[in-house]
Amino acid sequence: MIDLIIFVTLLAVGYGFGQYAEKQHYASIRKRELYLRSIPVIASRIPPHGNPNYDSQLVSGSVVISVDYFKRFIAGLRNLVGGRVTSYEALLDRARREAILRVKREAKNLGAEMVFNIKLETASIHKGKGNTIGSVEVLAYGTALIPNSQ
Amino acid sequence: MEYSNPKIPEGINTSEESPLKEFFILTSGLVLVVVLVVSLVVYLVDIFADRIPFEWEKNIPVNMLLDDKANDDQPLYLQNVSKRIVNTMSLPDGMDITVHYINDDTVNAFATLGGHIVLFRGLLEKLKYEDELAMIISHEVAHIENRHPIHSASQALIVGLILSAITSSEDIVSGLVGSSSMLTMMSFSREYEYESDAKAVKTLISLYGHAEGARGLFNIFKRESEQSQPVEFLNTHPLTTNRILKAESIASQLRDNNTTDNVHHGMTPLPKEFINWLQYEASSDK
Questions:
Q1: Which of A95, B109, B181, B206 could form a disulfide with B38 if both were Cys (CB 3.0 to 4.6 A apart)?
Q2: For A46-85, what is each residue's pLDDT tens digit?
Q3: Could you report the per-residue pLDDT of B92-101, keeping only the tens digit for each?
Q4: Going by C-beta distance under 8 Å and a sequence separation of 6 or more, which residues neighbour residue B22?
Q5: What is the DSSP string of B89-120?
C-alpha cells in the first residue's frame, strides 16, 4: 500500500516537474535559436570560403540533462514491448539543441561569423546503476571562424 | 553551391503525442498481462497444491518459528473450545490442529502450514462471548481444512520465483509488476476468507443453533477498523461490512428458526476465569 503511494507520488512528481521543465526548456531553446540564427553551424570539415582573413578557434558546449521518473518509467515499459522511446527522444533533442546553442553563444562571444566542423558526442551518466538514475550528456564542439581584424 | 540557413521545423526528432496516453496504454497493458499470467499460474499451482499430502505440511518446520514466543500452556477452557470445534468440523484423518497462544498485544489470529493456529492475546481481550471465540477458531480451522495455507504458500513461492526471474529489483517496472501480481493474489486470499467465514458460520450454527458469534466478532473488527477506512482492493482480508453481508446471507440460509435482531441473542459469555487469566497475562507481558 505504502509502496503504491510512493510509486504514484514519484510518477506524479516526475511527470509534473519533468513536463514543466521540458516546456520551459523548449521555449527557451526556440527563443535563443532565433536569436543566434545569424551564426550558422555546419558539419563540413573544410571552412566554406577558404578566406585567409579568418582566425579559427575551438568552441564547445556541453549539457547534462537528467531523466525524470516518469520518462524513465515509460522507457522501462517500452523495454518490454519495443517501439519508439518517445520520452527519451525529446530529452536528447533538447540536449543536442542546447549543446549547439552553447557552441553558438561561445562563438558569438568571440565575434565569430560561423562554426564549421561541428561534432556531437553523447554519454549517459549513471554510475553503474543503469536503471535507477540516469542523465545524458551531449557535448558539441566545432571550429569558430572569427573575422580577422587586420 | 549556395548556402542557406532555413529555420528548422519542430517535431522532427520528437513526438507530439501526449506521454500520458502512452503511459496509460503501456501501464494498463502490462497490468492486464500480469493479472492474466498470475491468475493462470495460481490456477495451475492450486491443482498441484491440492495434491500435496497434509503429512508433508507437518514436516515444514513452521512451528519452530512460533516456539520462541508461543506459549502452549493455555487454560483448559481455551483447549476445550478448540477441541469442541475441531470435533464438530469433522476434519479428514490425519489433519491435526494445534492451537497456539501468544501473549502479545497484536489484534490478530492466523492459521499456517501444518495445522497450526495462532491466537494473540490482543484479539482474545476484545472478545466478550464464547461464540466470538468459536467464530475465530472455526474460521482458522476452516482455513486449514480447505488447505488455504499450503495454497497461499505455493502461490507466493511460484509467483515470486517467476517474477524474480523476469524482473530485477533495479528495474523500474518491477514495482508495477510486483504490486499488480500481489493485488491479484490478494483477491484470491479474500476468496479464502469468504470461504472460511461460510464454513465457520455453519460450525457456529451446529454448535450454538445460531451464528450471532460471527456478527459479534465482525462488529469488533468494524470498531477496530473504524479509525481508518481501508480499501478492499488493497487488503488480504475482505472489508468487514462485506463479510457481514456474506455471513448473514449464509446464516439466514441455514437458520431454521428466525432469531430476533438482538445482537447478543443467546450468546454464551466468556467465563470469568478466562477473562481474569487474560488480564493476568496482559499484566505479566509488561
A1: B181
A2: 887 666 788 889 999 999 998 888 998 898 888 888 888 8
A3: 888 888 888 8
A4: A74, A86, A87
A5: HTPPTT---EEEEE-S----EEEETTTEEEEE
**Minimal Cβ distance to B173: which of A77, A84, A90:** A77
Model ipTM over 0.90: no
| B26:A74 CB<8 A | yes
By the 8 A CB rule, do A50 and B50 touch? Answer: no
User: Is the model's pTM score more than 0.80?
Assistant: no
> Measured between alpha carbons, how far is A138 from B84 in angstroms, rounded to an integer?
76
Q: Average pLDDT over chain A, rounded to whole?
A: 88
**Which of B5, B15, B173 shows the shortest C-beta gap to A76?**
B173
Query: Sheet harboring B109-112: ordered strands across?
Result: B70-71, B98-102, B116-120, B109-112
Q: CA B140, CA B146: separation in Å to the nearest integer?
A: 10
Is the Cβ–Cβ distance between B176 and A7 less than 8 Å?
Answer: yes
Average pLDDT over residues B132-160: 91
A48 and B30: CB-CB below 8 Å? no
